[in-house]
Amino acid sequence: MDAAPKIDEPDPLSPLRPPSHNGAAPSTYRTNADVLNRAIQDIGMGRYQWQLFAVIGFGWASDNLWPIVTSLILVPVSYEFNVAQPPLLTLAQNIGLLVGALFWGFSCDLFGRRWAFNLTIGITAVFGLAAAGSPTFAAVGVFAALWSVGVGGNLPVDSAIFLEFLPGSHQYLLTVLSVNWALAQLLANLVAWPLLGNLTCSSVETCTKDNNMGWRYFLIAMGGMALLMCIIRWLFFTLYESPKYLMGRGRNEDAVTVVHEVARRNGKMSDLSLDHLDELMSVDDEEQAPRQGLSTSDQMRMLMEPLSLSHVKALFRTPRRAWSTGLMICIWTLIGLGFPLYNAFLPFLQQTRGVQFGDGSTYITYRNSLIIAAVGLPGSLVGGAMVELPRLGRKGTLSFAAVATGTFLLASTTASTSEALLSWNCAYSFTSSLLYAVLYSYTPEMFETKDRGTGNALVSAANRVGGILAPIIAIFASVQTTSPVGLIRYYLPGNEERVLVTSVEALNDILVLKATHFVKPDVVRQRLSYIAGNGLLLAEGETHKIQRKSLMPAFSFRHIKNLYPIFWAKAAELADCLEKELNDVSISESSKSDVIEVKKWATRATLDIIGLAGLGHDFDSLRSPNNALSRQYQQMRQDPSRLESSLEGALSLFSTQAAMLMLQIPTRRMRRVEDASSHIHRMCSDILKDMRNKNDLDTVKQGNGNIAAVTLRSGVLTDGELVDQMMTLLAAGHGTTSHALQWAVYALCKQPEIQVRLRKEVRSHLGPITDRQSAVSAADIDGLPYLHAVYSETLRFYPSVPSTIREALHDTTVAGHRIPKGTHFTISPAVINVNPDLWGPDADTFDPGRWLACDRRKEPPESCSRCLKTGKICSVDPSFKREKKREQLEAVRKELQQAKKRLRADSQQDQLSDDIVAETALVLRSGRNGRIRSSVHSPSMRDSQRVEVLLNDKTIGGVHLPASAIQDLLNE
């Protein structure tokens, strides 16, 4: 068994030393402490100790009760007073806890335990009751700080008292004592459920004092409970001063008297006498005589002599003791930081996440808090049993509880439903109660009796310092914000730097204005090349510009609109397949519910669609799931082995270069990926050959044709480059679209009201999907605003590519910050798309209505372009976008006309012909990067001259257009 530290036992080989002024010398003190330990053990666990166990439990309960009180009233108080920073209340509380821990902890070692024991809960009761009448948020904060001064003394004082009266055979009760900690949490939530659940306003807008009295009644109930505890301590229990404290102060006779009184209360006798204790220098005997005749100021100076650092220095007297004390201080600091960050804001988390999941009523919030508290109750009892197990003990139990608590805490962040969140929080509550039970008992056992109050004060103060930092973090990070806005710099375990981009300005720099300054890292390019080839997705620099220009005609609206019948036909085929499988599932005897897997059908449908629209080839994956192409992509998507996955994950954490190693190792999975990639490459080559043989170019000239055929007609790309583009179309086209379709189905299942509204809009505008004769055009789809809102919200809330990486090619700047060459940026739409600073306070809610917020009948178009800047991003339907684009194109054409006029004026001055001017104006339309150069020559000129026109960034129609965007408009 990992027994408690025997810190009070003397070393039998150590010589006795004379006492020091501030108590006994270490060896003498330990010898006499051992005598008192044996005397307490001989008396045994009796009536006095059991009564002490009960009243000490009040302090244990108070230590957890009042921080929970603060967390439970945080939301209603912030609603009533319309507080911008609610965590300030928690900050005030933790400042009071810090003051209380230091004051009571040091005082009980200097002036005794008894007086502190009786005052702490009384102070808490008085100011807790007074807080119920607070007229302002500041008043609530002041009273919270004052009641916390009393609460802060419970741990250092009560644990020292109980341990010093407890027989060694029953020290496990110090762990069991923490059951009061869990009971307090249960009791607080039990009282809060009816009061706060029914007498709390639901929002800031509708909150008044009259409809928000729940938190005031709750404080009265908790303050009254604390007052009752104080009365019981004062009137129904007599606490004796700790005999070990008295002995440490040189008052041996008083110590012996206390031991005999405890024995008498237990109905026993003690043979302890003054002769059993070594003679110690009695501070009272030495100082009493000299004090007679001294002035008041001299007497006060002598009374303050004990206020030295001797008790603190004793905690660090030896390297081992210094290490133990320092480690315990660090542990309590971290717990003080983590506990308020999670537990103090748990009701807020429950309520806000509940709203997201559709059940965020105040009543449900406090009901869940009660359930969580009830589950934590057995943790203390289990901890008391585990510390006595031979192979586990205190250290083993503490380690297990810490690991389990951290695991469940991290797991709670993965919850996608309120039920899952409640389950993880219940598991966390149980293990954290076990953790606290062991830690509360283990801490005071580490310190010698004469320094125990000081040691408890230090660790308790460290805990409160962490508690002060917690609300400060919450204030600056905001409990509603997923991440700060800007550039967040962090390091991988291998000391490789990363920068997370969370601002629109930085994104605009990296992806638009300075896109040529950044590339995908080699490891990303190599990994994606197996799946997507070396097409547009992986091209960089000048190559990317050429490929993009060659592909743009194929993606123009006038061409894409001709592909809508393909989309509709395959959607109808998908509906048939789903209906057939549902019928098969319904009649199957082994099936227990009408459930089908959407993932496989979404993947097959999108693969067929991109095959027809992109390559002009029907892979027929919906009807033939085992076709060659589907099998190859299944090979690529096959999960790696556990060993390979673990190794890859570990290496990727350390550095990009380390992750490259996995791509070079010829594992079975990598061989399969390479084989599948080669097979898809050959398949695309064969399709390209068939395309040439069938003379699909004639179809293109007629305004029809697939994307690959349109690109082939341009003649810019070689066959090898075109095959790479076809691989990119297949992989990127069906993969991301399939993910979006799956998430859209998931979102509609989670919110049936959205599904009903969307179905109503579609069925009222489009014909039945079973009608194969009905044709759906681009105009039909454009007339479905709610459909556009749903898929826009799906792409925002469930981005198909949650994150990607860019690397700086050279020194540059991003959002005003200097960026050195080689810096890696993590671009995460999953983070940015739920940022309240950009999308409003409901950013973490799936709400298609946000995309309908700009009503063009009531607001000018410019207002929509400002939605991003005001923190509410919205969109408009495609018809409005096209109108906006026409306005922009017209403005650009005017710019070109002005440039042409300037050229004509220059030509008259330089005697250039009109033909040369016209030729130069045409060059303006095919230039790249906004900087257009053309060599012109006139027979009348002696030398060739270069005419340079700069196409700069423009603000057109209230929208900022970079030069590259203007060029895109021209290309269309």
UniProtKB/TrEMBL annotation:
CDD domains: CYP_FUM15-like (cd11069), MFS_SV2_like (cd17316). Residues 1-28 are annotated as: Disordered. The chain crosses the membrane at residues 52-75, 87-106, 115-132, 138-165, 172-195, 215-240, 326-349, 369-389, 396-415, 421-440, 461-479. It holds the Pfam family p450. InterPro entries: Cyt_P450, Cyt_P450_E_grp-I, Cyt_P450_sf, MFS, MFS_dom, MFS_trans_sf. SUPFAM superfamilies: Cytochrome P450, MFS general substrate transporter. One of its GO terms (cellular component) is membrane. Residues 882-909 form a coiled coil. This is Major facilitator superfamily (MFS) profile domain-containing protein. Its main location: membrane. Belongs to the major facilitator superfamily. It comes from Petromyces alliaceus. It comes from the Eukaryota. Residues 50-520 form the Major facilitator superfamily (MFS) profile domain. It is a multi-pass membrane protein. Keywords: Coiled coil, Membrane, Transmembrane, Transmembrane helix, Transport. It is found in: Membrane. GO terms for molecular function: heme binding; iron ion binding; monooxygenase activity; oxidoreductase activity, acting on paired donors, with incorporation or reduction of molecular oxygen; transmembrane transporter activity.
